[in-house]
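Q: Convert this sequence to structure tokens.
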Amino acid sequence: MNIQLCPPGQEALWDEYASRHTDATVFHLAGWKRVIEGSTGHAGHYLMALDGERVAGIYPLFVMSSRLFGARGVSLPFVSYGGIVADGPEVEQALGEAAAGIARAAGCDHIELRQLHPLKSPWPTTDRKVVTEIPLDGGPGAVFARLHQNVRNKIRKAEKNGVAVQQGVEYLPDFYAIYSRNLRDLGTPVLGRRFFEAALEAFPSHIRVYRAVRQGKTIAAKMVVMGRNTCHFVWSASLREELSHAPVHAMNWRAVEEACQAGCRQVDLGRSTADSSHQDFKKYWGGECRTLPWAYQLLGREDLPGLHKENKSFALAIALWKRLPLGLSRILGPPIARGLP
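A:
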């Protein structure tokens, strides 16, 4: 078994494996390395296991380093999923050992693997994150019938209130304006607009941008990523003062309809913190909620890392960030957000 970094010019070999393995997601495609490196400056190490000339496993690793938060390994930052995809436990273990060597050399004390599917290796896991998935069996009509009555009523209410949903890459500026404001209101620094532009450039056939408009004003927007069988809801935001018009329900339903038309088997409503209001919102969409088996390779530390918004030690910083002027938050946010996985 030979473990090596994916050589330049061999991305097609990597993508062929990622496209056919049932545990891989659209976020395992090699193009995300260009997106993240080019927009944040973090170093990507895309490890590939070769059995002769055959790819037997992949491990996309990023080493994130910042003055505020130190160094850590993440697979993958800024997107929904990552982690190891391998043909068996021996391949998985070999990839893990190679990644640990890279991370240790860079000064990391852990690697976070954002797995959609569980690993065989005995690394510690957390049940902090969950995902809700909507099956698309039967097409839009059948999906609509499975929605909770409150959700169906909200979709109808949006239409009655004159909310129109539009889709197109030209709406990226509208998306970023709403998204950056929403994150400021939540007390979270926002990634720079360049990250989203780079994602659209790398995956023009996978990413769709939606906006909800009422009386000529954009009041909500979202970006989804279309995978092989799954439409992933990844980034979404709305104006709080417009929520009574149900723009999020309207956008979600339009995206669900288009996912059905594209031949997807399910919609991934995005990860949430367990028992949060976001998880509560998603359960009414007729989906199934399950725990995400995120795993950690601990490299010289015994406890799991606590760099996440639910950590109470960040409460003051979150409260202060909410008070920042919007323009200032868009300037100060990206350098900080690039260090937050």
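The two ends are 31 Å apart (CA to CA).
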